[in-house]
Amino acid sequence: MSWQLQVSKASAASGFEGALMSLSKQFDGLKISSFFVALALASFGHGAAHAEAKPDISKMPWMNKALSSDERASLVLGQMTLDEKIQMVHGTGWGVLRKGAPIPARSNFGAGFMAGIDRLNIPDINLADSAVGIRMAAYQSRYATLLPSTLGAASSWDPDSAFLYGSVIGRELRAQGFNMSIGGGVNITREPRNGRNFEYAGEDPVLAGTMTGQLMNGVKAQHVMSDIKHYALNDQETGRTVVNVLLDKKALRESDLLAFEIAIGISDPSGVMCSYNLVAGDWACENDYLLNQVLKKDFKFKGWVLSDWSATHSTVKAALNGLDQEMPGDDDHFGAPLKKAVESGQVPLARVDDMIRRILRSMFAAGIVDNPPVRTVVDPFRGLEDAQHIAEESIVLLKNADAVLPLKSSASNSIALIGSHADVGVLSGGGSAQVDAPGGNAIDPQFGGSVWGKPVYFPSSPLKFIRAKSPQANVQYIGGEDKAAAAKLAKSSSLAIVFVNQWMSEGHDARTLSLPDDQDALVEAVVAANPNTIVVLETGGPVSMPWAQHVKGVIEMWYPGIGGAQALANILFGDVNPSGKLPVTFAKTEADLPHPTVPGLDGAGKVVSDDRHHEVKPFDFKYTEGARVGYKWFDATNKQPLFPFGFGLSYTTYAYSSLSVDDAQRTVHFTVRNTGSREGTEIAQVYVALPAAANEDYKRMVAWQRVKLAPGESKDVTLKLDPLYLSVFDTDKNAWQLLRGDYRVMAGASSRETPLQATLHVQP
Ligand code: BGC
Fold first, then answer.
1. Which of 307, 320, 602, 627 could form a disulfide with 312 if both were Cys (CB 3.0 to 4.6 A apart)?
2. Which of 97, 169, 180, 309 to mutate to test the pocket of ligand 1 (most atoms within 8 A of CB)?
3. Beta carbons of 166 and 211 less than 8 angstroms apart
4. Degrees (nearest 5) of the Cα angle 186, 625, 184?
5. What mean pLDDT, rounded, does the chain reach?
6. Which residues, other chains included, contact 616 with Cβ-Cβ below 8 Å and sequence gap of 6+?
7. pTM over 0.90
């Protein structure tokens, strides 16, 4: 009798979707392979064999915690053989992500695995996708908290909330036995139809970089290694593995790369994941300019560069141009071929040592050697509380005509809830950011984990929580497919709340800004039947709203996470005063965007390529808008957005006054007053227009503060302006330059509402 592990996986075109593993008892001792024996042994006695082999750490000087991470890394490096070094610069393959791929014995069943060096007490690295919560929990019957989308969380403009977000991820990774997070997406929203915008932190490099940096600090505080991705210019999914992105260096440094620079500066992340696309003719994962010149030299990044999954294209070029680790590893550029290249002198050993030093240094710095993960049962209650708190700060109130909100539980005696499965749950984003729902997909519970390409709803029911807030009211739900029936229910109700959604995922972009599935027509039908209509959006990013003028209320709740329905009910009924503000511009129509169609879609709207497995020709695409991303584009071209960057309403009102600047200190002072009758938190924003010599036809968001105010209360706000955010990038000198001259400083409630203006004189 023997045990055999059968690794089976429901396959999908992309080959990424969650897998199923079943253990079966087999009675054929003859055929079992040594691989499966090893796998079975390690799986049943997880850690036991490993523990027996544990070396005597008292003889290992690098285990002295008093030494710096760099010193400890050098000491280990000095002991390593070339084979051990080669082992650490690549993963062991697709593992659980791909049907039939071998799973290493000690893998924790995450997206990636690097085998450690037992004799030197260097642990394995178990990496898990964890952009908005940990992926593939169902695979091992684990639980993972679904947080609001990262874009949603960026709407809080709250660095503490971002830190909390990272802490939840780090805490649960640790409890599940992982020691590295691969999340931390900071690609700015250059393309509002990008399928992954929900995993990123918005269009502004200062906001996105700050929020992502704080998020990573939250992860690291749990002794889990952190990662920032996808470096760089992977700003759309269409053609992501074939597009050669062109953007001039000045604009690149002042937009996309600035977000990375800020996030890296704040958090000293363990890893940076290079992206699938090409930049200026070279793959991002073998791009000397991006990796060596900018990331390692200019940003002084001390961690290691790991490739996106199968984004490594060469051995010698990639190694020399800055890639430190190939993932997931089975394309085999950094295994035997790298060893050969070292032996033949094509890649100096010093370069491989640099790779190892970076990896080891990050392991010691994050504490995964001294404080390895301890398996625990993930605390779902704490996760829910944290997710709900973040969601309450994330929800953005976009319209509130006739003060339709907050609802009073007695006033509305009949409420029609329409659409988006609001009876059972809230939507989540797909791809490698997909989290498995407890109990399975709320709209289609089935055996196993989430299926790639299929929208997953989490069991957080708006119907249930709205009913609980208003027990006397008659609250009824109807799906949105039958518009006439939905309109009929709306007509017979005192209020209609229409839920609309846009499901987004890695692997494809939205073709237009319109809501899919004729949902605009649904809203129009409902509002025609009952003008007392509120629309709640669950979208991955910005969408157009042709009905915005007709409805009374609009709430953007993004993908709100497992506490989404509670958070929404608290906002609707005024238990929580909304404070979120948009981290992205909402355009009225595609015609107002820099590119009316997504680059790579052909004239007929056909996708030239939407995932890596399609055989498509590489194509160049030049982002002619340069650094004018989002509100900067709308400012420069003098276009009126539907809802501007930085915009969001509250149930109270605020007034701004008394702006002054201190030239020597480069500080800005102003006063914000709560002029309404409720306590609230205002996100006060500071923008700056550079002197004429900068030749910029837009302003920049350079500072902000969340200001909590009781009714009638005033607070003075003082913000220090970071010289980096005021500087231009001089490509000749390859340096940031703070120009002498007059800077127009503006303060207010959004990018389009800056009532206060002053001049800052800069003498560098
Ligand atoms: C994604 C990464 C992800 C990796 C591993 C890739 O397709 O682009 O973000 O971390 O897969 O799942």
1. 307
2. 309
3. no
4. 5
5. 92
6. 239, 242, 608, 609
7. yes
